[in-house]
Amino acid sequence: MKSAYFIGIGGIGMSALAQMLQHDGVGVSGSDRSASPVTNLLESKGIKVIVGQKAENVPADAGMVIYSDAVSEDNPERVRAREFNIPQLSYFTMLGHVSLGKRTVAVAGTHGKTTTTGMLAKILQDAEMSPTAIIGSLVKDFGSNYLHGDSNLFVVEACEYRDHLLELSPQVLVITNLEWDHTDYFPSFQALQETFKRAIKHVPADGAIITDPSNLNIAPLLASAKASIVDYTKEPAYELRMPGEFNQMNARAAAAAARVVFPTISDTTIASALANFQGTWRRFEYKGKTKNGADVYDDYAHHPTAVRETLHALREARKARKETLRSEESPYSEESPCDEVTPYGSRKVSPRLRGKIFVAFHPHLYSRTRDLLDEFATSFSEADKVFIAPIFAAREADDGSISSEILAEHIRAAGVDATAIDSFEAIEQALSEAKQGDVIITMGAGDIYKVADALVRK
C-alpha cells in the first residue's frame, strides 16, 4: 500500500495509526470535522489534514481508505471512495491487520486503559525493548499518542466497543477492570462479559492474561482461559506523579505486563519508569489558573465510576496537602502555580486549601447517560458545585428520553448543587465565581477541555 486516506483522522486511535503508517513509508492524508490538538500534531509531522469532509477530498489514487467508527456509510468521502473502487477498512480492522506477525500486548478494560498502556510503553522503552505503541491519548513522555519501536513488540490500547477487541490477536491481554459501558451496543453487562470471555479464550496457551482474578466481574470469565493468569494486584505500590488508588492499580497492571513481556526486567527499571511517567493529555491534567486564581484541571472521565474516583482522588489529595502544610513551618510562595494538587511536577503549594471543587461535566452519549443515570446521580458526591453541558450526541440521535436537565435534577436529588447550562460559553461565565483556593475540573469524553483551555487563557 503506497497511500492511505483517513476519514476521521483526528480520532485518537486513527491519528496514531496514521503516524504508524507514515513511519512505514505510506503516504498518509485525511480529514476531520474540526481542528484539534491531535490534528495539529499530525500536521506538525507532515501529514495533510483537511478540515471538513467533502467528496472531492478523496484522492482518486488512494490505495486504501481507513475510516473511524463515527463515520457512517453515507459519508460523502466514503461514497466517493466506493465510486473510485478504493478498498475501505475500519480503524480496528486495519489495526488487526497491522498487528499480525507482531508480539501484541493488548490493554483492555472499562477504566484505565490509556494510562496503563502509556505506563507499559514507558516501562518497556526504558528497558530498551523498543516497543511500538498506539495509545488512546497524547502521552507527555512521547509527545504523541504513537511510539515507534524497532522490535516486533506491539503495545496497543484495545476497545471493546462493537467487539473491536476481537479484531486483535494478542499474546498478552491486560484487563484492568470491567463494568457495563457502551450501552448503545451492549444491551446488558452480561453481553459485555461475553465479549471479554471470547477475548480471553482467544489468547494462546503460551500467552498470558494480566488481570485482577478476584474481581467479581472478571473472575467468572477466566474459566475459559487457555493462557496463564497473572494477578497484577500482587505488585507493590509505586511512587507516581498522579494521585488516586485507580492510578496505583493502573501502575500495577503495567508492571505485571512488563514482567511477562520481559521476565528479566529489574524492579529498579519498573519503579523508575513509573516514578517518571508524566501522564497523558486529558487524564487528571493540570491546565493552569483562572484570572481569579482558581486552579483548573481537565479529565476524560465519562463513566460514573471514573467520575467518582477522579473526584475522590482530588478531594483526598487536597486533604493530604492540608496535612503536609500543618506539619511544615517553611513559608509557601503565593505565586505557586497550583494551590491544591499538582499531579505533574514538584511545584510548591500555597496554603490556601479551603476552597470548593467546581465540576463542568460533558455527558457523552444519550444511551450512556440514560442507562447509567442512577450511577451518575451519585458519582458527584465529592463536588461542591456541578455544571452540566448539553449531552454530546456523537453517533446517536436524541429520542427525548434523557437530557442534561434530567441529569442535573438527579444529581440535586442526591444532595449536590447541579445546574444544566446550554453552552460552553455560559459554563465559562458560571465558573467565573471560582476564586483562589477553589478548584475547577472539566470532565467528559467530548470537547469540554476547551472550557478549561479558555479559563486559563483569560
How are the strands ordered across the major sheet? 8-7-9-6-10-11-12
CATH H-level superfamily of the largest domain: Mur-like, catalytic domain
According to CATH, what is the class of the largest domain? Alpha Beta
CATH topology of the largest domain: UDP-N-acetylmuramoyl-L-alanine:D-glutamate ligase
Supply the helix-strand structural class: alpha/beta
Query: Quick one: biggest sheet?
Result: 7 strands, mixed
Radius of gyration: 22 Å
Mean pLDDT: 91
What is the CATH architecture term of the largest domain? 3-Layer(aba) Sandwich
**Care to count the β-strands?**
18
Task: Quickly describe the structure.
The protein has 458 residues and is of the alpha/beta class.
Verbal overview:
This protein is an alpha/beta fold. It has 3 domains: 3-91, Rossmann fold; 100-276, UDP-N-acetylmuramoyl-L-alanine:D-glutamate ligase (3-Layer(aba) Sandwich); 285-457, Mur ligase, C-terminal domain (Protein-Tyrosine Phosphatase, Chain A, Alpha-Beta Complex), CATH 3.90.190. 34% of the residues lie in helices and 19% in strands. The protein contains 14 helices and 18 strands. The chain has helices spanning 12-23, 37-44, 76-83, 91-99, 113-126, 189-202, 245-261, 267-276, 304-327, 366-371, 373-378, 404-413, 424-430, 449-457, and strands at 3-7, 27-32, 48-51, 64-67, 88-90, 103-108, 132-139, 144-147, 153-157, 172-175, 208-211, 228-231, 285-289, 295-299, 357-362, 385-388, 417-420, 439-444. The strands form 3 sheets. Strands 8-7-9-6-10-11-12 form a 7-stranded mixed sheet, with helices on both faces. Strands 13-14-18-15-16-17 form a 6-stranded mixed sheet, with helices on both faces. A 5-stranded parallel sheet has the order 3-2-1-4-5, sandwiched between helices. Strand 13 (285-289) and strand 14 form a beta hairpin. Helix 5 packs across helix 7 (245-261) and helix 13 (424-430) crosses helix 14. The chain is globular and about 55 Å long. The relative contact order is 0.09.
